[in-house]
């Protein structure tokens, strides 16, 4: 690649950082090049994950590949910033409310949130301490923390709906199922007419740092879509460059 091509690629990244999104035509105008040249630049950047195309023939935006590059510069990226970016991407991609949560004793605490298109009056979850035995994020985090799982089974489990698991044996079996399948779900167990799916956010050393969750009304996230949704969340998490 020529020095001029490198310069234009950097200019393209800076343009997207400034504008958020841009079409091929807009990028050609910004770089003062032909549309075919702008298309080649964006395609090359996309091949390396530095930009991503929102949909076929659509606009381009900065990609998660930049996060991976940044991680080589900083010893530890800011957790909250990456979590929020991940939520934003998931909410936009799936049209559901996305959250990242961490474990606090036997509860899941949401640290970031983004609301998907079409979700009206979404509940504000950030900072909310949610019941570990009744939420998808809580189940996922408990399933990867033996001490916390033991503690919660020794406590009285509150029934939030008629579907909430409230017996130690039932919860133990549920957490074992979560580990086996690699994802957790809450099927109207915390709130009626609301479902959720969670996956673990693994660090490179294999430890679980947090859980990524999507939540929606049952008609938007029915049980038969849980496994497929979990697979989609896994793709988003892997693309973040921080988790796998």
Describe the structure.
The protein has 244 residues and is α+β, with helices and mostly antiparallel strands. It has helices spanning 3-19, 24-31, 35-47, 65-71, 79-94, 136-143, 146-153, 168-181, 226-239, and strands at residues 21-22, 51-53, 60-62, 97-104, 107-114, 129-131, 184-187, 194-202, 208-217. The protein has a six-stranded antiparallel sheet, with helices on both faces. The longest helix is centred in the first third of the chain and has 17 residues, at 3-19.
| Rough outline | elongated
**Secondary structural class:** alpha+beta
Q: Strand percentage, roughly?
A: 15-25%
Kindly report how far apart the N and C termini lie. 31 Å
Number of strands: 9
Reading the helices and strands in chain order gives HEHHEEHHEEEHHHEEEH
Number of helices: 9
Largest sheet: 6 strands, antiparallel
Alpha carbon gyration radius: 20 Å
Give, in spatial order, the strands making up the sheet with the most strands.
Answer: 6-5-4-9-8-7
Helix share bin = 40-55%
Average pLDDT, all residues: 88
